[in-house]
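User: I'm writing a tutorial on reading structure tokens. Could you give me a worked example: one chain, its sequence, then its tokens, then a sentence or two explaining what the tokens reveal?
Assistant: Sure. Here is the example chain.
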Amino acid sequence: MLSSDSEGERQVAVSKIGGLLIRCGLDWHDFADRLIAPAMPPTAYISHRPRIKMKQTQDHRYRIAATDLLDVVAAIRDGAPLDGYERQFLGTMEERAARYAVIVLSPKQFAYLTGLLEEI
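And here are its predicted structure tokens:
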């Protein structure tokens, strides 16, 4: 709307943006400051890194609830650029979470998953 040829449409758009800024506790100066500020790296947008809630079994494997595993996979996908193998590994984790309520990971799988999580 700001690029409209109609001055009325542009004024409405500016008014709507101003109202949104006010509701967020900001003003046009804050908006301008953020426009000229250096870009933040993608990892700065992540509000939190989920902890992996798991239990280690007697045979040194790791048990993790499907819902917790899906939270971790989603955080990794949202927070880090992934190569083909990493996407495939996370896809396999998602498939296992869809099939089972509790997933058992080998020490190597657990280490790889935590390594990906630490990269975000």
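What the tokens reveal: Confidence is low (pLDDT under 50) at residues 42-47. The chain is about 55% helix and 10% strand.
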